[in-house]
Amino acid sequence: MRIMLISDHADPLAEVGSKEAGGQNIYVFYLSKFLSRQGVYVDVFTRWDKKNKKEIVQVNKFFRVIRVKAGPKRYMPRDFFFNCTDEFADNVLKRIKKDGLKYDIMHCNYWFSGVIGLNLKKKLSIPMLYVFHSIGQVRFDALKNLKLQKKDYIFFQKRNRFEKKIVEECDFVVSTSPVEKKLIQRTFGIPAQKIKFISIGIDDNIFYRRNRGRLSRKLKSLVFKRKIVLYVGRIEWRKGIGTLLYAFKETLKNFPRARLLIVGGGKTKAAQALDKNEVDRLKNITRELALDKSVFFLGPHKQKELNAFYNLADVCVVPSYYEPFGIVPIESMACGTPVVASRIGGLQYTVKDGETGFLATVRDYKDLSLKINGIISKDKSFFSNACVERIEEHFSWEKIAEQYQKFFLKIVK
Ligand code: UDP
Questions:
Q1: Which fold, 212-394?
Q2: Angle between helices 23-37 and 327-334 (to 10 degrees)
Q3: How far does residue 268's CA lie from ligand 1's centre (Å)?
Q4: pLDDT digit string (tens) for 111-130?
C-alpha cells in the first residue's frame, strides 16, 4: 500500500513549538512513522520553505518527506499559502510523472492541502481523505468577538467556502475526536458515514511515567520542593496563556510556593520574531501581576526532553480558547500527570473530567485556578493511574496506525 500525504505548511521534520509549527507537524510525523513501521509506504509532500532544506529526505525504508516548490523557498505566513496551491499541485504531478510514482490513497491535512487534493484528485483518480486540523467556521466563531479585523472576515469567508467544497468532494473526512465528528456533521450537513473517527496518538517510547530523576541542575533547583504547574505548546494568543497567568496568580494565594513553567516558543531568530508580540504581552502581564519569581519561560524543547517536564509537573494546563484536538494533554496523561483543560473542542474528549483531570470554563481564570488547586490539593497520584490507563486504551500510535491501515484497506478494495 502506498499513501501520499499532503501537509502544505507543516513539515513533519520541522522544529516544533513556535507560532506555526505544532500539532499538525507532530501528527503527520507520527502517523507516517507508525504506518511505515507496519509496512505502508508513505510519501509526505510539504512546502519547500527553506533554501538549505534537502528536497527529499528518506526517513526510513518506507517513509519519505518530499519538499515541493510552491512560492519562495523561505518562510511565508501560512495564510498567504492559498495563492501557491496550484503551483504545489503542478509540482507534485511533475514529481509523480518523473519518478513513475503510484499511490493508492491521498491523505490531505488542513484546508490548503484540501484545495491541492481536489486539484490532484481530478488527475490521479485515487480516493481522497481529509483531516481538518482546524475548522474555519468554528475558529471564526471562537475568535470573532475578540481579535478579528475586516481582512480576517474576508479570509474566513473564503476559507469556509473552500472547506465546504473539500468536505463535499473528498471521499472521506477523518475526524480526530467524536466531538469534532459532530461539529463537522453540524457545520457542513454531511452524512455520518462520510466521516471516520480516528484519534491522534502518542509515542509511548517517548511519553511514559517515570521518576523525577535525571533533571538538569537548573531544572532541579526550579522545582525543588515546589508544586509545579506546567504549560507546553506554542506561544499563541488562542492558546490562552494570558488566562493561565491570571489563574496562576489566584493559585499562589493557596499554594504560595507553586511555580509555573512555560515550555514552547520559537527556536530560531525567525521563529522568535513570529512569537514576539505574544511573548512581550505575556511577559508584561507577568510583570504587572508580580509573578516574575514564580513564572518561568523556558523556551522550546525537543519532544524527548518533554518527558521530564510532564513527569515533574503536578498538573499540566491547556487553557486554549480554541482547540481542535490538543496533543499536549495526551502526552501529559501518558506520563501520569493530570490535566486541567478548557471545556472546548477535542479537549472534552481527551480529558475525562474528574478522572484524568478537570475541564474548566473557557477564558475564566477563576474557574481555571479552582481546577488547578483541585488537583494540587488532592495530589497527582490520585489521578495518575486513570491517566495512564486512558492513554493505553485509546491513544497509542501503534493501535491508531492499525486503525488507519484497516480503514485504508476498506477504501481501496
Ligand atoms: N511541542 C514540542 N516542543 C515544545 C512545545 C511543544 O515538541 O517546546 C509539541 C508537543 O509535544 C505537542 C505539539 O508540540 O506534540 C503541540 O501540539 P498540540 O496539538 O497540543 O497543539 P497545536 O500546536 O496543534 O496547537
A1: Rossmann fold (3.40.50)
A2: 60
A3: 16
A4: 999 999 999 999 999 999 99
